[in-house]
Amino acid sequence: MSLRNLLWFWWRRFPHRAKHEELFALVGIAVGVALLFAAQVSNRSLGASVAKLTDGLVGDAQLQLKARDARGFAESMIPAIERLDGIRAVAPVLEAHANVVRDGRERSVTLLAADARLAHLGGSLVRGAAAVRLDRLDAVVLPADVGRTLTAAVGETVAIQTRGRKVDAPVAAILGANHLGPLSASPIVMTSLRFAQRATGLNGRVTRLYVLAEAGQSELARSHLERFARGRLDVLPVAHDERVFAQLSMPSDSSTSLFAGISALVGFLFAFNAMLMMARERRGLIAEMRMSGFRASAVVQVILFDALVLGAGASALGIAIGNLLSKGVFEPDPGYLAIAFPIGTARVIEPATVALALGAGMLAALAAALVPLAATYRSRGPMDAIDDDGLDPGRRMLAPRRRLLLTGLGCLLATTAILAFTPAAALAGMATLVAAMLLWLGPLLGFVVTALHRFQRRLASVVPTIASGELIAASTRSMAISAIAAIAVFGTTSIEGARVDLQRGLDPNARELTEVTDVWVSPRGDANLLATSPFPARLATERIRRSPAVMSVSVYRGAFLDIGDRRTWVIAPPRDATTPVPQSQIVEGNPADATARLREGGWAVASEAVAQQLGLTVGQRFRLDSPRPATLRLAAITTNFGWSPGVLVVNADDYRTAWGDGDASALQVRLSEGTLPAAGARAVERALGPGSPYAVQTASEREAGFRATTRAGLSRLQQVAALLVVAAALAIAAGTAATVWPRRARLADLKLVGIGAGSLWRAQLLESSILVITGAAVGAAFGLYGQQLLDRALNSVTGFPVVHTLGVTSALASLGIVTAVALLVVAIPGWWATRVPASAAFDD
Amino acid sequence: MPALLSLDGVCKTHRRGRHANVVLDRVSFHVGVGEFAAIFGRRGAGKTTLLRIAAGLDAPDAGRVTLDGRDLLATGRRRRLDGLPDGIGWLVRSGPLTRSMPMLDFVAMPLLERVPHREARRRAGAALERATAGALVDARWPELSDAERVLVALARATVRRPALLLADDPTAGLGTREREIVLGLLREATDENEMSALITVPALPDVLRAHRVMSLSGGELMEPTRQRTGDHLVVAADRRESV
Amino acid sequence: MLDVCDLVKRFHTPGGETVRAVDGVSLTVRPGELVALYGPSGSGKTTLLKIVAAVIAPDRGHVLLDGRAITGLSERDAASYRLHRLGLVLQSAHMMAGLSAIENAAMKLIAAGIARDEARRRMMPVLERLGLDARADHRASSLSMGELQRLSLAKALSNDPPLLLADEPTGSLDTVRGRRVLRLLRERTRERATATVIATHDPQAARFADTVYTLRDGRLDTAGG
């Protein structure tokens, strides 16, 4: 059929369509698409923000020379590098963690400094800031978001606190999105190299050198650079940061992907159910076309065209809604990722995300449209199958089936095997577990229905009679309702249970890391949560020691070190630490031996992922690519302390040697006998003086900070669980509506018999209750098992410490919530169907 | 008259649960080009089944059905997927799915597959004229009387200029005068256009305009010989030999 | 005894016109009398039945059954009336496919508060009478058209109502089965002194009735009979 005819035919039918059902389908698909789009935007924005930052700086450069620590390397090396073969241009950059303060407001930022050479690389950030000549600036340039947080204006002064120093800086410019694009929402502060070096005290030093190689000579340039670096500096492609970010955000990515997947499922379910509701009308249309003499191909074209238009419209609507959602509810939240990257909160909408959302919506509409098509072509003739009230004649869906039970048992055994022998394959185990659950659901439901049927023998009410009559004749859709409830409860039980287990593992970990001292002192800044920002400790230590409340001050060191793509957290506890490694976090190796060896020196403790990356077993020697490379032996393997890329613990002396300086990352203060932590903290603050660039926390305050961050990181999982409940409720409502709607003739007939609408509605509720509660109960039981699997899966993906429990309360809560929500929602289509007038039973 | 439609030894049995009902028992007949044939029989005798088999919409349990030499059953399942075979028009008495569709569009619908929509509407207008329903181009189905609906249905069934028109009890529920008009139109259409028509009717008086009359009873198709006695037709059943 | 007095019911077509489906109909049905409402489709028979079944309300006029008004009832009272005092047989029987034949037939008894076992006990003789006793425990989905129609009749008669209405009871049946159903209706009417009304366009069915009222365009045709 020609396209013009298709369009004309669609247009002629347009004003007269089954409006309610089409609207339902449109809204349903739109909702699914909206959720998918919002989740993807929020997720991809973070990564895109990192990519844009790199692009903004890097321009055309292909390589970078990167320091392994915060002290960077000497500028004096640069002329020699410029003369190397194959190198056309270089541009140095200095980055440092800083805290910007103004009028009592503060913001944790990354200080970004460069000189005129960066402009030659063509980075967009520099171009954007070109209005302000950076290279001779003795001031700072703020992106709009930072400016807003500080309520700073051009010409006003802000204080830059970094590396234990404080410098006042005038604001030269505040740049918005028109200059910086999405970077206007990133936590960065731009200034000249000179000024930054002065502010940080890192005179004559830079942390990065971007290198632009001659055309086609990247390889040559790289090998020269590597030789030059002599293993002390990293020679990396410019895309390195994006890869590290991808690694770091993997757990957050995984749960967001899960969220996006379920959103897509929501959209599909909706589309499917709504299209099923429209199936009757669709089949009428198909019959009408076939009796007009249309070929099968023309019929398919018309149906698919309808679906395409619906899908496109719904997707467009969904993207619009999703856009709004991503601004409000799903704002990109860097969370723990901001600790290691200056990630902005700007939304970045990539064309790929739009295409994905559009495609998903269209696919849902098309798939759902094909169902009535397929059903028609399986029936005998064109005018058949218009009158389908959803009954599967001759198919006793709810009769117990031995084969189903046995296959289910097989799946259950497979799951157990996976759990026992290869817990890493836990996700596969989840699949077999879900299969077992669904296979057993049918026979269990059959058992419950038969029991109801027998029980209501004694009862004199017509409500259970009607309910069991419908259940016994149950079609696939009724079974589907039960299955959806089961899957929802299974999902929420497993996910919430696993999340609680994860939290239970991380909380003691947080305590163990922080309780080693009474008071912590570290450079200010939210992003410095893990205390990885170095500062010269002498002055501060002296001041603190003078306070009578203080008994001792120890130096704690920590830093980030990129081992491959893993931004590893390196910890060097003070020399006098009693437990340098939290004993409960040790997974492999003897704790006592490990502690002793660590004290001894020459040994390190690494988390599982790091050990695996370096191919190490306990006792093995390895080379650490620290600023001064060192050789160490692995004393033990631990969990990752809640930092997913991994952790490395070394001796304080080894750290000093390998990192080459005596700077501290934090001071651990022990208070005198009898001093309360809060009082002690205040005393330390007083000792440091007003406006000091240090944050003073008691151990419990610091612990609370850790826990809040991990909770924020796991919050996506909670959102997934909540979304599952909503999705299930909506799907069940839609499924019920689709099941109940074709029954109206039968309901009208019962009204003619004299049965009131109230009884009919109660029968519908009873029927739905049985389906939902049975499904939910089965889901809860299997969910507990699923929780065990998911625990192990999460553990292997994220490396987080996990405490395995059996979340019975959580299971019961899931069961209760899903059932309550589902029944509330189901009451509506049930009530609406019982509104059918009795006169409808007469053939009209 | 050369045969357009040919049924040979067609058998059909309907099964429901444990009951088996022989609806058609070795039915054979031809409809020639330009011939208007009618089959009458009691309700439940199998007329609709026979018509559907003649249209290639259902498959018989045994026997052959050919249209203009083409075996309607040859491509089996694919034929049934495609609905009505080429050259057959089926008079459907139900209206458009979208109740507010104007009759011109409704009649034009069968042409949309192959013909640009403007041309389709032009031809639809012509078909409505031929069915003496030219005034109904802008009317909506719910407004039409039963008789007007049959005329529109006739226009729709003939808009593609089929070689064979099939109609299942086209005059059901119509008054006497209206029946006359419809049957007259059918006769006219077959006379003028070399179109053949095969209809089913529940009672004998309805077949006065047909060229030929057959009766279906107990699964057997018979061609009664006619003897005029007064104003009534006396029907003597005569077993038709299979060809 | 059923009294129909001056019933009028109008409908508005989508085209904006008003159609008088029932235009001033009055008739009486005595206990033990089988009445046929005869007329072509669109003559108003079904509308009239719907009013008598308290399913729609008339614009004018009233209906009395044994002196009690059937028109102007609340939703609840109408349901109660249909349950206890009316038996209804329609052209196509909508049965609950998941329940057995006898459970379907006993629906009215169960709705009236009789326990299933007791209801079953009462229905068996009725099913026997209609030749359905062998199929009593079979799923309704396995019954033939004729059996379903008879089951429908059993359900309508299950609580011995004083009024029985049937809308085209032979519409989807062939002649033999149709006649069977009509005979049963007539027998039952006599035996239990039920007032029975059949709406039909089949002249053969009309012949079974004691009285035939011919309806045309919503009015009783006093010329015919």
Give your account of this protein's structure.
- The complex is a heterotrimer of chains A (844), B (243) and C (225).
- Chain A has 844 residues and is an alpha+beta fold.
- In chain A, 56% of the residues lie in helices and 16% in strands.
- Chain A is built from 27 helices and 21 strands.
- The longest helix of chain A is centred in the C-terminal third of the chain and has 42 residues, at 699-740.
- The radius of gyration of chain A is 32 Å and the shape is globular.
- Chain B has 243 residues and is of the alpha/beta class.
- Chain B folds into two domains: 1-87 and 165-243, 3-Layer(aba) Sandwich (Rossmann fold); 96-161, no CATH class.
- Chain B is 27% helix and 31% strand.
- Chain B has six helices and twelve strands.
- In chain B, the strands form three sheets. Chain B has a six-stranded mixed sheet. In chain B, strands 2-1-4-5 form a four-stranded antiparallel sheet, covered by helices on one side.
- In chain B, helix 4 packs across helix 5.
- The model of chain B is unreliable at 226-243 (pLDDT under 50).
- By secondary structure, chain C is α/β, with parallel strands linked by helices.
- In chain C, 35% of the residues lie in helices and 26% in strands.
- Chain C is built from eight helices and ten strands.
- Chain C has helices at 45-52, 75-85, 101-105, 107-111, 116-129, 145-157, 175-192, 203-206, and strands spanning 2-12, 18-29, 34-38, 60-65, 68-69, 86-89, 163-167, 195-200, 211-216, 219-220.
- Chain C has a six-stranded mixed sheet.
- In chain C, helix 6 (145-157) packs parallel to helix 7 (175-192).
- In chain C, 52% of the residues are buried.
Our Rg estimate of chain B from Cα atoms comes to: 18 Å
What percentage of amino acids of chain A are in beta strands?
15-25%
Please identify the top-level CATH class of the largest domain in chain B. Answer: Alpha Beta
Q: CATH superfamily of the largest domain in chain B, called what? A: P-loop containing nucleotide triphosphate hydrolases
The helix fraction of chain B, in percent, is: 25-40%
Low-confidence stretches of chain B: 226-243
Order of helices and strands of chain B: EEEHEEHEHHHEHEEEEE
Largest interface: A-C, 39 and 39 residues
| Classification by helices and strands of chain A | alpha+beta
Largest sheet of chain A: 10 strands, mixed
